[in-house]
Amino acid sequence: MAVKLSLVREKITCLILVTSIMLSFYTSSAINDYDILLSFKSSVNDPFRYLSNWNSSNSLCNWNGITCRNSTQQVTKLDISSKNISGVHFSTSLLNLQFIETVDLSNNQFSGKIPEKIFSCFSLRYLNLSNNNFTGSIPNGFIPNLETLDFSNNMLSGEIPDDITLFSGLRYLDLGGNVLEGEITKKISSLQNLEYFTLAGNQLTGGIPKEISVMKNLKWIYLGYNNLSGEIPEEIGSLSSLSHLDLVYNKLTGTIPSSFGNLSNLHYLFLYQNKLTGSIPDSIFNLRNLISLDVSDNFLSGELSELVIQLQNLEIFHLFSNNFTGRIPRSLARLRNLKVLQLWSNKLSGDIPQDLGKFNNLTVLDLSTNNLTGKIPEGLCSSGSLYKLILFKNSLEGGIPKSLGSCKSLQRIRMQNNLFSGELPSEFVKLPLVYFLDLSGNHFSGKIGEEKWEMPSLEMLSLASNKFHGKLPYSFGSKKLQSLDLSENHFSGGIPSGYGRLSELVQLKLNQNQLSGMIPAEISFCKKLVKLDISQNHLTGQIPVEFSEMPVLGSMDLSGNDLSGEIPPDLGKVESLVQINISHNHFHGGLPSTGAFVAINSSAVIGNDLCGSNSISGLPACKVTKKPIWWLFITSLLVVVAVLGLAISIILFIKRRNEMELSIIDDPYWNLKFYGPEKHRKMITLEDILSAATKEDNVISRGKDGVMYKGKAAALNGVQFVVHELKEMNGNGTISTDTGFWKGMENLGKVKHQNVIKLLGICRSEKDGFLIYEYINSWKSLRDVLAGLNWNARRKIVMGIGKALKFLHGKFSHSVLAGVLSTEKIVIGEDGEPCLRPKISNNGFSSSSYATPEDKENNKDDETTEDKLQQSSNGIYEFGILMIEILTGKGITDAELGMHDNIVEWARYCYSDCHVDTWIEPSIKGEIMLKQQHHQIVEMMKLALQCTTGDPTARPSASYVMRTLETIEGTGYSCTSRLNVKVVS
């Protein structure tokens, strides 16, 4: 009995000891986890105070974002995703959490490099660092049991490490949305458990390894938005579990593999924006689970098969921008789930299937730019969901079906350039959601002015080049109308005064009609009107004097009417008005002395009884009448005031010069002047400048206008600067002695703005010339950094350039230009702010690829034309192109612009009729799914196209551009989401 009691005591003692050890272990673990997490908290910025309850008054397992195992204090999960938390580095202390299985830091603002020891925490099963700002390369190492690894949408660079193939337990791998380079290794096939595989949105090259076919568990392959080349491996057809295959925006060639017909579980097949050829294999139509098929923007050809009827689950069918021929398959009308059908820009012929829409669920139909004939089917809107109908550039005929008049879901209608005829159905002008309606270039007729228009959403209306007659509609039932084009019809009667209530109107075109009566003064109420064309009518009376006050009017054409009287003396005083045509009327008297008339061409005033004081207009000189004595008195008084003003100006100028300039006169061959801070005068010497400009290692850039060198003053703690060595300007090996050029430098020395590189001084001799600029930290061109920038960084650059343009336009004469607004010339500092390098020019023309259309077409010896164009488009056109490049990632000479002559035509085409993600820069594709960011991107492209319009007078001013950008800027907020679908514009 005593022995038994002894044994029991020993067991109890052992149990107590083991329990004590375990409690000590767990307590120690909790204490360690506690310290580790508090250390992490102290290293980050938490603006929303999400981590505020991470303190000693709360139990560790009750902290926000923390999950513990059962009732223990063992931290197994850390999830602080989407909390706007930032930090300059990833805290390696988190890797010491002993039992951590899940770490989710996604959708925050973390930056810096991912630590090398990230893969040393073997307890991890889930690691998500996506949608942050991490840089550097992906660390080596591996965790065998890790199931999810998501580093997407950061700024990681370098090649994908081979160690990735050692993550044998991975089911989900996402490295997309970075700037990774190199090829996809064949060893990727070792990831036998992988189900989700995406490397999209990088800069990967080479082919798609056929070894990928060994990964039988794959359900999702997303390799789009790279530079992959070669043919698509046939072996992919053996991946029977595959549900989503996305290879878009690459350089893949060859045909679509027929083996794809074996992918019985495939729901999404995206192959658009490649260089694929051949026809669509019939086997594709065996994919009965297919929901979306997009092979657009390739070089596919052949006729479309009626076998498409087998795709009964198909919702989206995109074949646009290929070379398909033949008829549209009749069987498409029997796909009950079909929502989006886009076949535009092919060579399709025949009629539109007459049952199309009757049994479908159509929302978008785009058949434009084909060779289609016949009539519009009656049942297109049977679903009641059709909102986009695009049929332009075909040979369609007949009238608009009455059924479309009851299609209340319609929003965007483009039917221009066909052979349509007949009258508009009365209900068609009462569609409540239509914001864009273009019926121009057809044979429509009838009196539309007698109908009551009720289109409250209407922003753009074009009925140009038809056969409408009768009175103009008095109203269109919309306060949002921005563009109204009723030109080249047979309208008669007067211009309704109600058009003055169109407060958003930017363009009004009523030319080539039979309008009569006076021009309503109420049109001057359209404060946003940029272009007014009411030429070639029978209008009478005078030009309303109120037109002189229209703030942004850039172009006004009143030619070919019966207008009379004198021209209002203040007309053209607003700087924006640069193009006026008043020819072939009955005006008399002299031309106003305002800017718009100073350099007016003779063709714009011919056919009147006018006189002028310059030879450019071609008008006879006006007779001078004697001025009364009181006028002589006023003139004398003004002369006295002017003399006093001049004296004061001279005194101020001398004082200013003494403050700004220091000339070095101790060298007989050089003239050196500085502007601005005293430290530059004292530190930078002639020797510093010449020394910097003689060392090849100091070269920053080379261009047509000379070489840029980085320099540093030899003085203690000397400042850094940039030397711009000017190329010869006289063609005889010498620098220009033109005093106008060097005096222009004086103006540049006065330019002070955050986004303008400061000119510190000039240095010149008889044969050489240097400009000395401030040095911007990093001094990287926009071209060098653009590819890796997210949307916020791109938006910041556009805003900065816009501010600089507005400043230069508002504060300085047109002799101070913004320089060449190109990705090569704009400097990006360490803070991400763009800096322009202004220049002095005797004309407004650019010799770069960014030159405006009028630069290329006009005679460059015509100084008057040059001055006029310089004032109208000083940097605005270039800024528009720059915005397009920033938004799309395309260059002005990009080989992928297709049939379009230049990037502007390409962008205009894409904006009107393409998916947003067919023209957006791949690295920011993920951000267009956010409502606010999507709106900002689309609106900025819209502004870019306004800036690059072919008519220089219709381009907005720098002030207008900046106001618009500020409005766009105000629509965004920080939020993240990721969807792999296309967005329809």
UniProtKB/TrEMBL annotation:
It comes from the Eukaryota. SUPFAM superfamilies: L domain-like, Protein kinase-like (PK-like), RNI-like. GO terms for biological process: defense response; post-embryonic development; response to other organism. It is found in: Membrane. Gene3D superfamilies: Phosphorylase Kinase, domain 1 (3.30.200.20), Ribonuclease Inhibitor (3.80.10.10), Transferase(Phosphotransferase) domain 1 (1.10.510.10). Keywords: Glycoprotein, Leucine-rich repeat, Membrane, Repeat, Signal, Transmembrane, Transmembrane helix. GO terms for cellular component: membrane. Residues 853-869 have a biased composition (Basic and acidic residues). Residues 694-968 form the Protein kinase domain. The chain crosses the membrane at residues 629-654. It is a single-pass membrane protein. Residues 839-869 are annotated as: Disordered. InterPro entries: DNA_repair-toleration, Kinase-like_dom_sf, Leu-rich_rpt, Leu-rich_rpt_typical-subtyp, LRR_dom_sf, LRR_N_plant-typ, LRR_R13L4/SHOC2-like, Prot_kinase_dom. Residues 840-851 have a biased composition (Polar residues). This is Protein kinase domain-containing protein. It comes from Papaver somniferum. The lineage of its organism: Eukaryota, Viridiplantae, Streptophyta, Embryophyta, Tracheophyta.
